[in-house]
């Protein structure tokens, strides 16, 4: 993967984390255990520190960056959807930031919150725990139900499993030129690592 030391600071990736080979890591980046970083994500620790805590995921084409001296953090089991931008903010434990949302400097998404897709979270924003955050500019609209939190947690668990699957079975290859007869579907038991079949 494109991984770059800058001013003596080298990115750190825990051995149990999966980072896609096309993701770019620069400088002061720390990726904890059981994390997943998707294709084409950009983690630029060239000004401030970038941190993914245990079990967090950062999906395809996401950007993490911040101002000098600050930290941009996804806390434990945080979940960040495709195309989101996190700049100098903190995503709390077990929170979710939806696809193409933007979270700005000094904002804090409290634990177990869900930020809706395409929301724009202004600098310095704060919200109560377990809130649904929507809009542009974003506002905390209501308290999330336990069922909604459980739905989020199931999705995060799938990405933690995906990190294991990719480490065990993702292989770069040339494409086929035609579809095979009786092509299996992703998730068929024969396609999953044996340790995960029946999980």
Describe the structure.
This protein has 199 residues and is mainly beta. The protein has a single domain (3-143), classed as UDP N-Acetylglucosamine Acyltransferase, domain 1 (3 Solenoid). The radius of gyration is 18 Å and the shape is globular. A hairpin with a 2-residue loop joins strand 18 and strand 19. It has one helix spanning 146-169, and strands at 3-4, 12-13, 18-19, 24-31, 36-37, 42-52, 57-58, 63-65, 71-74, 79-80, 85-87, 90-91, 96-97, 102-103, 108-109, 114-115, 120-121, 131-135, 138-143. It has one helix and 19 strands. Strands 1, 2, 4, 6, 8, 9, 11, 12, 14, 15 and 17 form an eleven-stranded parallel sheet that branches. It has an eight-stranded mixed sheet with strand order 3-5-7-10-13-16-18-19. This is Phenylacetic acid degradation protein PaaY. Keywords: Hydrolase.
Order of helices and strands: EEEEEEEEEEEEEEEEEEEH
Distance between the first and last residues' Cα: 30 Å
Q: Indicate the radius of gyration in whole angstroms.
A: 18 Å
Structural class: mainly beta
CATH class type = Mainly Beta
Counted beta strands: 19
Q: Major beta sheet, specifics?
A: 11 strands, parallel
* CATH architecture heading: 3 Solenoid
Helix content: 10-25%
Annotation field: number of helices: 1
Assess the beta-strand content as a share of residues. Answer: 25-35%
Could you name the ranges where pLDDT drops below 50 across 5 or more consecutive residues? 193-199
How many structural domains does the protein architecture include?
A: 1
Shape: globular
Give the integer mean of the pLDDT values: 94
The name of the CATH topology is UDP N-Acetylglucosamine Acyltransferase, domain 1
CATH homology group:
Hexapeptide repeat proteins
